[in-house]
Known about the structure:
Blueprint: H1 20-44, H2 46-70, H3 77-127, H4 134-151, H5 158-177, H6 179-188, H7 195-233, H8 239-249, H9 255-270, H10 273-301, H11 307-321, H12 323-356
Amino acid sequence: MSEAGVRIVEGASPNEVRDPATRREIKRAAVWLGMASAIALIVLLVQPLLIIFAGLVFAAMLDGGVRLLGRVLPIGRAWRLLIVCLLTVIFLIGTFVLTGVQVAEQVNQLRATLEAQAVLLSSWLTSHGLMPGASDISGIARQAMSSVGRLTSWVGTAVGALTTIFMILVIGLFIAMDPRVYERGLQWMIPEEKREEFAIVTERMGYTLRRLLFGRIIGMVAEGLLTWIALMIGGVPMAMILGILTGILAFIPNIGAFISGALMIAVGFSAGADTGIWAIGTYVIVQTFDGYVLIPMVAKRTVDMPPALTLGAQILASALFGILGLALADPMTAMIKAAMERRSETVEDEREQEALA
């Protein structure tokens, strides 16, 4: 109710748009501007986002252990998470205490062996005209190292790498403590009519991620143990550290197997032709067992990812995001695959409903 004597100006103000067509165009422009701003923000914050995603992956690993433990121990989630964390810490500390000295010695020996083998290989290639001279090699090496330095400049130093790992562990632990809180928070940011579908998609993605990581852990343990035992039987030097590296690199399919194979073959030939041939045989047998026996068995109960799809995702992720992107390419692809499969199911259901109508 207006007071007496107050004058009200009639007509539209300069900042008021009453034309419906103009309003529609402004809304469209605002949507496109918002999308462009979001893309630019993602590009600027890609490394922190990768660290957060790595924390989610670690949380999924902890959550999988908590769910698995819940099948045999009917206790609270917090206690099961504490048991999983304690068992993980005890395993890591026990492994390093029992084998720490031997592993440290083998790491230094491995580095010296690889450097010597690289010099021998480059000399052989140079003598046969298959590689540039020493001066050109040093130039190429400097250029490659500068490229790697630019690619991983966000890590910077060993302190930065340790800080990144620490943040990943902390984020994963906090999320694993009470994942429902973060799930509700995400759903609140989604329009109410879309929340049910969003909840289904996130549940599918989480389930797929847990199964994928479970299969990866089984593969890592199996490859590491088989490589260690086989190399030790064949008398290949540094069998323990090669087995550990093979198990760790097995987390990255395709590329990890190639790197671990090159390492064990180089070390094998450093001790002689016989051990080199044994190392080649070990690599072929372990990878054959992993590719034709272990992976198919695990894939039936976890996630079946086509090798070409995984390798293509790794190439793109490593080119765009660096080393961390390479390590997280497989979980990213699995979650995107789960979301697209759910979308395909939704489209098929809509088509069936339209056909019935």
